[in-house]
Amino acid sequence: MKLITYSKNIFLPVTNLCRNRCQYCSFRRNLDEAHLISRSAAQQLLEEGRDHGCSEALFTLGERPEEVEGFHLMLAGEGREDLLGYLVELCELAIEHDLLPHTNAGLLSEEDLATLQPYNASMGLMLESCAKLDAHEQSPGKNPELRLKHIARAGRLHIPFTTGILVGIGESWQDRIQSIQAISRLHDEHGHIQEVIVQPFDPKPGTAMSTHPRPEREDLVRTVRLARELLPREVAVQVPPNLADPLPLIEAGADDLGGISPITRDEINPNSSWPREEELKRSLFAYELKERLPVYPRFIRRGWHGSKTRRLTAALASEDGLRRKSISSREWW
Ligand SMILES: O=c1nc2n(C[C@H](O)[C@H](O)[C@H](O)CO)c3cc(O)ccc3cc-2c(=O)[nH]1
Ligand SMILES: C[C@H]1O[C@@H](n2cnc3c(N)ncnc32)[C@H](O)[C@@H]1O
Ligand code: SF4
């Protein structure tokens, strides 16, 4: 039976302040409406996550919020001077609560990426697309060259990495192919890509792209097929089951469903609720559905997960025999 994996996570929106203005995004807010997660709110979510058996704390935030005037006042409200220090503190808090951090903070400097590495089991940054698109006209951080550089830097630092493409934001088929090939080349060089997300664009009311059509199912199927063909076998192709029916995409070669949360919503796609584990088990009965950690086994074996997560990762990986399980359909270990 083919193996399909997912991670049980909680979604922590650290701040929705962002220097970019992606035309599809409803997560970002202007200063007057923006928030910074408080220690106590984070703590409460982490406690709930632990109680629900989650293994991943997904920290997501706008890119370089420090560049927005006024953010330092929000930080000061939490008694901090810099965002990085606060992110490290939140990751430490997650680890104390038995949850493995996975941070996607947008573009980071080499120094900041290196600072976060020890505290994260894995990290992520979507390439989105290797093409320069209108949707990113006001988003300096979505410059594909900068994103590819960031992903390469993560590779040099041995950070197990999640990236992916956003499908249906104005890119061509050629762009999709080239984006996947670019990710594949980075993996050939550094070996750090654990999964590539094929993320369908989902129109959001109130955004510039609210009337832009969502991609056709057949286009998603073709994109997943392309990704599966162009990427080496050990790199998982991830599809979010709250944005499109996963079954045809799994049939086309997808092998991971990403983070699924029993308690928090997908703050990027707040109106698309995740299916429950039982629902997925029912609809994907022809597959072996299996929970995984936010860091894939081969990276644990190589010791690439952040040093501060070592004990927790070992404990979680051995918990239900994950460590020894032999798996037929995929090079899981
Ligand atoms: O719940 C979500 N998880 C998202 N994830 C998280 C992902 O599902 C899991 O955190 C990873 O599979 C690690 O276990 C992302 C992670 C990244 O590094 C980059 C982009 C995303 C996008 C989403 C998303 O839109 N919704
Ligand atoms: C975290 C990731 O969420 C994705 N993202 C942001 N906005 C949308 C949307 N409207 N539809 C689908 N995905 C989106 C981007 O790819 C970002 O990198
Ligand atoms: S997708 Fe990320 S970078 Fe783009 S506006 Fe939203 S929060 Fe900012």
From TrEMBL:
Pathway given in the UniProt record: Cofactor biosynthesis; coenzyme F0 biosynthesis
Residues involved in [4Fe-4S] cluster binding: C18, C22, C25
Sorted UniProt keywords: 4Fe-4S, Iron, Iron-sulfur, Lyase, Metal-binding, S-adenosyl-L-methionine
InterPro entries given in the database record: Aldolase_TIM (IPR013785), CofG_family (IPR019939), Elp3/MiaA/NifB-like_rSAM (IPR006638), F420 (IPR034405), rSAM (IPR007197), rSAM_sf (IPR058240)
Free-text comment on the cofactor: Binds 1 [4Fe-4S] cluster. The cluster is coordinated with 3 cysteines and an exchangeable S-adenosyl-L-methionine.
Transmembrane segments: none
Presence of keyword Ubl conjugation: no
Keyword check for S-adenosyl-L-methionine: yes
Co-factor(s): [4Fe-4S] cluster
GO molecular function, one term: iron ion binding
Reaction(s) catalysed by this chain's protein: 5-amino-5-(4-hydroxybenzyl)-6-(D-ribitylimino)-5,6-dihydrouracil + S-adenosyl-L-methionine = 7,8-didemethyl-8-hydroxy-5-deazariboflavin + 5'-deoxyadenosine + L-methionine + NH4(+) + H(+)
Matches recorded under Pfam families: Radical_SAM (PF04055)
Residues annotated as domain Radical SAM core: 4-242
Similarity annotation: Belongs to the radical SAM superfamily. CofG family.
Quaternary organization: The FO synthase complex consists of two subunits, CofG and CofH.
Described function: Catalyzes the radical-mediated synthesis of 7,8-didemethyl-8-hydroxy-5-deazariboflavin (FO) from 5-amino-5-(4-hydroxybenzyl)-6-(D-ribitylimino)-5,6-dihydrouracil.
This protein's name: 7,8-didemethyl-8-hydroxy-5-deazariboflavin synthase
Originating gene: cofG
